[in-house]
Amino acid sequence: MVKKWPRVGVGVIVEREGKVLLGQRKGSHGEGTWALPGGHLEFGETVEECAKRELFEETGLIALSFSSGKWTSDIIGPEKHYITIFVTILDFEGVAQLREPHKCEGWDWFPWGALPAPLFPPFQSFILLMGREN
Questions:
Q1: What is this structure's pTM?
Q2: Residue 53 lies in a domain
Q3: CATH no. for residue 115?
Q4: Mind listing the pLDDT tens digit for each residue in 85-121?
């Protein structure tokens, strides 16, 4: 029997004027769903380093301060299990740009009460965990 292990993902919450930054995924699991910037935690990397790196790689935004917090555990399809740690960016600089067009359709800001659908499973789990309504 082949053993499978959960992977660790990092979701980056960026807010501006009561809105959260989301992109529509393409080219990987969760294609067509709306997700936060983020990605896989690399060996030897802290969660905060991962959040800063992924945010810059995907959007060009530079995280100046952040806070780590909640996490979720999600089975995505028949083969993938992710533990996702969420990091909230408290201060940043720059303008969101599409820097990985092979992974994302584009970035946009959405009010917490009017998020697009469908949401990427870990982000949907985060919304439920926080008791936010959509």
A1: 0.94
A2: yes
A3: 3.90.79.10
A4: 999 999 999 999 999 999 999 999 999 999 999 999 9
